[in-house]
Amino acid sequence: xxxxxxxxxxxxxxxxxxADKREETQPGVEDIPGFDPQSIAPYMVKDPHALAMNxxxxxxxxxxxxxxxxxxxxxxxxxxxxxxxxTDLVKTLSDVVNYWVSEPQRTLEAxxxxxxxxxxxxxxxxxxxxxxxxxxxxxxxxxxxxxxxxWAKNPFFAFxxxxxxxxxxxxxxxxxxxxxxxxxxxxxxxxxxxQLTAALSPANFALTNPEVYRQTVAxxxxxxxxxxxxxxxxxxxxxxxxxxxxxxxxKFKVGQNLALTPGKVVAQSDLCEVIQYxxxxxTVLKRPLLIVPPxxxxxxxxxxxxxxxxxxxxxxxxxxxxxxxxxxxxxxxxTKNWEAYIEEGIEFALDTVEKAxxxxxxNAIGYCVGGTLLAATLALHxxxxxxxIASATFLTTQVDFTLAGDLKVFVDExxxxxxxxxxxxxxxxxxxxxxxxxNMLRASELIWPYVVNNYLMGKEPLPFDLLYWNxxxxxxxxxxxxxxxxxxxxxxxxxxxxxxxxxxxxxLKDVKIPIYNLATREDHIAPPRSVFRGSALFxxxxxxxxxxxxxxxxxxxxxxxxxxxxxxxxxxKGEFDDWLAKAQETSGSWWPHWHAWVSxxxxxxxxxxxxxxxxxxxxxxxxxxxxxxxx
Length: 631
Prior knowledge:
By secondary structure, the protein is an alpha/beta fold.
């Protein structure tokens, strides 16, 4: 008995010594060249119990979010969509896939292109894991979503990022190189591929985003608890649809820290309020200025804060400024069409300007679709011999939609019929529909980073006035929106000279007044080539100017910020690229250049005018009541 016990003890000692010897001789992860044990510390769970409890709480909030989403659908408050966008996506991308799989040689070519890139990525990953310095491929695009250092330093995350970017570029190339697609199908396919690749980015998932992973470990999952709580709130705020928050809405209020330029509402119609602003100079230009903003967004993009306000700047330069503030339409406005928006909007405002100032000549500005409506109004006025608008400025305005931006993706006969069916049911298009469409144009910047920040990181977005305005969406009256989509985006009747208004076929060639036409270089809504092409349609002199940045920042660019630049080159002749090659670049804002241009048309001065003059009584203070109605 004693011998057996002794033998067992001796055997245990031997095994322990052998185990110690193996630990001494066999390498561990810490023996890998270049391995830093501290590098994995932020990814190691330190409190499994707290993590499990927080995940359970997060699931509880997720269940609440699901209830908020399902409830309105079960009650019939959100009808089934007339057209399923997934159906159109599958149909469109099937045309691309059919091209590449219809011949074995094409299929092999597509596969070889992708797999050869994967082999290079795998080779670099193995080298990086072994501690070797491996420079990244020079052709990888810069992307803000992968700004965290771990996307380059950590072999796992570096592999994910490179594989994703290579695959995304490969998919876009397949669309670009597919033959036999019509222009609209190719544009839709490219758009859908961008949406899919943006959604499938490894930056959008907790386990494949190093920053989210570290935050989850550090907070034991508290980030998910907060994120799912916000998700439930955002679905509830959207009435069963996700209303993605881009900023803290509690930090802004129109009339209190936004749209502060002093003025009065001096007239009101069923479709708009007309605001006249208080003068800030002793004398003003004799010719008043009327601004026609888009009805798709609210006018105060031009009056965000005093430091950014184009309206205030114009007032300070000696303009008597009038602005149309469009109504946020509901079912009562279902039949209000383009003619109504001209008569009860622009022409009503022109009558108001004349009553308030005694002047029958004005300078007019139209922004985005407000400019498109203004251009159509000018063509109609030319037929009617109405010469009240003496000069016109268009800001990122399309009048020819041949080269229109990615919004054309949403407009074909099938999709338009579905939209019209939906609008006919309610009398308007929900503001969230257009807001979502605009966000989808820049999904990698306006959707997924906020999904990650809000719902995965559990962080409230920072206060940002521009994004507050962007979320303050408006509805679209059914008749007006349908007319716009069909006559501009679908059939391009304004550009072709075939649009009918007030029983007359109108043509922009009849517009002989001076035109200042501003495009922005990075515009995804009104691309500069499209705006440039439209310049040739007017019958009078056109000053084409190109500003740096995009649809909003390129327009709202105060001179004292000294940001961006603009290009001038006289008349817009020939091709856009040729014009740009000869254009003169000037740093800073285009605002002073425009003011000099418009003043040159008529620089007569008169004593400053108070809102309404002697003929009109103020209805209320700026920014008025219509702008406060939220969708």
